[in-house]
Amino acid sequence: MTVERSSEATCPAKLTIHYNASAAPKTLPETSSNDTSSVQTPTFGNSFSNLSQTKEINMKSKSNKEILERFIKVSEAKPAEILPSDIQLKGWIDNIQEKSIKEANIMKLHNAKRKRQEDMMAAARGKTA
Q: Which intervals carry biased composition (Polar residues) (predicted)?
């Protein structure tokens, strides 16, 4: 599925969804208004029997929530559930990021201390030379 978006103010306020033949919804949802339209066009590929389906959603004067609901209905999308393994992975990533920040701060302090020592040694060498 490909979603096109145009930021030009002169373009109509519509969301265009392109499906390939295998990903297109099998049935068109019933609509009471003319918020959506559907078109089938042939695609150029290995066989000419493949069809590409395009659906458009009118977004004019619609809130983000209304657009999302319309998109879900038209595309027959299903919300993804958060799995326990996803929660565990998120926790692991957060933990690694915290450790990385701590290690970066420790290295910053270490490098500053080493630079001060090198500057002191260079100053001592300069005075005795």
A: 29-51
